[in-house]
Amino acid sequence: MLKQLFKFKGGVKPETHKTDSMDTPIGVAPLPARLVVPLHQSIGGLPQPLVQAGDCVRKGQCIGRAEKWISSAVHAPTSGTVLAVEERVAAHPSGLPTLSVIIEADGRDEWIGREVIDYKRLEPEQVREILRDSGVVGLGGAVFPSHAKLAAAKSVPMEELVINGAECEPFMTCDDRLMRERADGIIEGVRIFRDLLEPKRVLIGIEDNKPEAVAAMQAAVEKSGENFEVVAVPTRYPAGGAKQLIRVLTGKEIPANKRSPEMGVQCFNVATAYTAWRAVAFGEPVLSRIVTLTGNVEQPRNWEILLGTPIRDILALARPKGDTDRYLMGGPMMGFELPSLDAPVVKATNCLIAGSKALFPPPPPEMPCIRCGACAQACPHELQPFELYWFARSRNFGKAQEYDLFDCIECGCCSYVCPSRIPLVQYFRFAKSEIWSRERDKNQADAAKARFEFRNEREEREKAEKAERLAKAAAAKATAKPEQNEAPASNEVAVAIAPVDADAAKKAAIAAAMERARQQREAAQPKNTEGLTIAQRKEIAEIEARRAPLQVPQTALDTEDTEARRTQRDE
Amino acid sequence: MLTAILIMALGAVVLGAALGYASVKFKVEGNPLVEKIEAILPQTQCGQCGYPGCKPYAEAIANGEVDINLCPPGGMEGVRKLADLLGREVKPLEAEEKPKQLAIIDEQLCIGCTLCIQACPVDAIVGAAKQMHTVVSSLCTGCELCVKPCPVECIRMEPIGENIENWKWKYPVIEIKRVA
Hints:
The complex is a heterodimer of chains A (about 575) and B (about 180). With about 575 residues, chain A is α/β, with parallel strands linked by helices.
């Protein structure tokens, strides 16, 4: 190979354990009786459920619509009946529940209508929408929605598209098997990515401990007639990290505050390319993924497993050995221990490892840091883990951020080499989540403060407006006073003269109001009395006759009342 | 001698004028200490400190009128941060520390009196007269101010539990094993 390769700093060479599972072809896992499909299977917005208990779903039917642009749709992996949409334990280190759709499979595995699309006739925007609605996300484990990565930066032309088949984590062979068995599909997917991003070169990076995969990919590239370059990269963990692979293949280093498109590079996993091709060319959304079942098992192998299959159901396929005491999801370096086997297989589940005391001996006790600097030498991001450890341990989060805590990819190299066996990554994870939580609290406090201030302002304004209204009304009354006729005026004068007699004043006010109303009534002349029929006139006369006795005593009462008051005043 | 005095006097006048100008031109609006204190307070506007809102409490602290341990939502961490900022002693919290809460209106019981809407300091309750009210949970600060005014006691406070969104990695704990 004549191509010049670059190196990334640091890294480790753990035992790979890949031979266990790499030689058996991918098996298709049996259909489980019941699937638990979490709605939140990608980074970004939580998809909204589109189904409810009792609904019948077909295979490939969308059950969760993507919310916002950075989000990805979720589909029913098989046909059946929705039993419930409820909180179920998630495939997450916390073991907390997440909103999931529980589907009882009917065994028929009936597809919903699929559409074959010629993506070349569509606008790039439409292709991105198809990918989002098909649930295509990064299957390397980060599950970032792929459509959001498929737009070149406006100012920087896209130079290289990097396809990641490095698969550097020990035990994992799912991408290896996929490349060996379905290389043509991957190349088709890479074509789609290439047409959307229009890079100058396409580089497919594969670690050199997978010669069969390299050969298969090379053959597929030749068959397709494309000028993609398949490059074997030296085996060194974490060569499969996006930034590390970009560095090795292109020599470009992505700075801390930039994303790779700003440097003219973008990186996708091989499995992502494969699912993108299935989505575009066959209208098949992401319903299953290839999972490596390995570790302390009798039959390590890769299986194509429907998303939502409870992990407990599929472990039998690998026949775990008797002394298995825990299960890891993801690799031994970056993965986590599954808190519950009821958790389902999700888009991020690339590997399930059965662990035992013999395979993963319990970590020896943590010793004090001796500041030997081994971690700094191993760190592929050129950070100083011993400093970060110190700040995280003392909860000095501001300082930890100053030392670029958020550039840490949690690859575990530092913990791997630490002679004092300090679980450094755990400290960094703790510090990161603590900082995120503080950020959330701070944002909430700021929003609450803004709302509180706005409310106070509004109340002030309303008070001022009310006062103004009252003042205006008072002024209007004052100017209206002299124009009023005598009788009420005299009454008001009466009120003014005898303010002590509150009862009388009230009565006077009422009397005045009634007098005004009577005058208004008398002044008002019905306007629609012309040209009436005799019958109508007769009716009006009858009504007037009925009303007359009601009105007379009232006016009489009024006068009596005023008389009484006059005498009162005279006294 | 005279020239020396004149020079000194001139210097004093020029510097005085410069200082006077600077004090007008670069005048700081508001009390910067109040703002710093307010940034530490949790902005629940609950009034549990005895002041109507976080800002008045911040002002009172800045004036040295009150202790820094009167804010239960801020918790011990808030007290520690305030002590750090002001160089005062850390004191235990006056009231007991409560986990973050959320107000929930029992919509079956609500009679639509609008009293809670008026009580809410951050406008987190929506509803109208004789219409059912409800709490916008993302805006609720858990201040409990709406609980008391409710004539039918249909508002309860529920602690916000741990969920996937707010879950945090725990501080790594070193296991201590009994050797003998």
